[in-house]
Design brief:
heterodimer, A: about 375 residues, five-stranded mixed sheet, five-stranded antiparallel sheet, 5 helices, 25 strands, B: about 80 residues, mainly alpha, 4 helices, globular
Chain lengths: ~375, ~80
Amino acid sequence: ARFSIYGRKWQKRSLTYRIENYTPDMSVAEVDASIGKALQVWAKVTPLRFTRIYSGIADIMISFVRREHGDFNSFDGPGNTLAHAFAPGDGLGGDAHFDDDESFTFRSSRGVVLFIVAAHEFGHSLGLGHSNVPGALMYPTYSYRNPDTFVLPQDDVRGIQYLYGPNSRKDPSVDDPKPPTTPDACDSNMVLDAVTTHRGEIIFFKDSFLWRSFPQSQTPQQSLIRSLWPSAPVDIDAAYESRQLDTVFLFKGRKVWAFTGNQPVRGYPKTLTAFGLPKGVRKIDAALHDVNSGKTLFFVGNNYFSYDESRKTMEQGYPRLVNQAFAGLTRRVTAAFQHKGYTYIYSGPYVYEYDLGTGTRHRELRNSYFLRC
Amino acid sequence: SVPLSEVSVEDESFAKNYLKKFFNLTEEEGPAVRRGISPVNKKLAEMQRFFGLQITGSLDADTLAMMKKPRCGVPDEQV
């Protein structure tokens, strides 16, 4: 666990909260629901219980404010700082302030989801500091997450239970969703979702995370996919870079997203049929762009299709069996990319190095060859 | 982490304010300063370590991009 704590916590288990005012960005009902749900994120996994009060001083006073607002910790207008909260204690202790110069939303990715920011701030109100695990709720930077499917990540669960213990009142017959963990580059059995190049970097995808590997650096940087591309899907199936278009394509199910730099390309997401794939193809396993031929290979089960990037059409005579082009490859392809003239085909935790010109296989490697632990 | 071709005065000032706010940067004189270890570079390295960035101790493009992301106003390094 890489959470941090303030060294202060509430000595009682029943806490009160009060919403002092509202943001004009959302309806009163939406703010009430966002705040209530954000507190329940913590109540679910601890013995803590929250009661709303409408007057007087609550343990957690919640307000929407701008710029200087009387706590010697001014907000800075739109962007950058979104909110802050104070560790448990008297006076300001436990209080949460939201910067009303932001555009708060109920669940849209266009704006800042109040529920996510509030759940993070209430972590501070209860005594947690920031975590340096990129997927943790208590990570300092904001990334869009769908409030409807949010589950408190493992690092945060461990942090809050370190302070208050688990929820002993939980009904054992109710099966809660498992807290998501952050994938570990040192896990030798990890199967990556996709790998692609991107403007000289290599990007490795796993669940809602990615690692960026820079040519100048030994250590890949881990972050959430949505901190790089806020509108991108997570748990993707495949990815590739078209250097001609300076675009990265991400595939999930029948849909394809496209990004140039960190900007979404207009007109996307499209369906797989836009790439000439038959309607019957529900998802692809991997995509590989061959720089020399300008063709992109789409792997589907034991077969692959070849798409001509310049003509924007699927080539005749496909699908073909994968092992016709890649000698000895009988297992499902899970990811693929090219690097320094060689083609790397992932199958589970293994990586096979091919010379695409001759079709010969040179080496069998492990994930850690590119994604260093 | 690509070096910035030219660090603008605005970027430098923005980065300093960020480090003051979130990484407890103080501009005190001391033996370390006299030996030539800049407190800004030291704090930049701390910030880069926290965020899993390449630790260069200097303001590069990735570090600046991380500083410009929307975030919580509570410091990352606690006093």
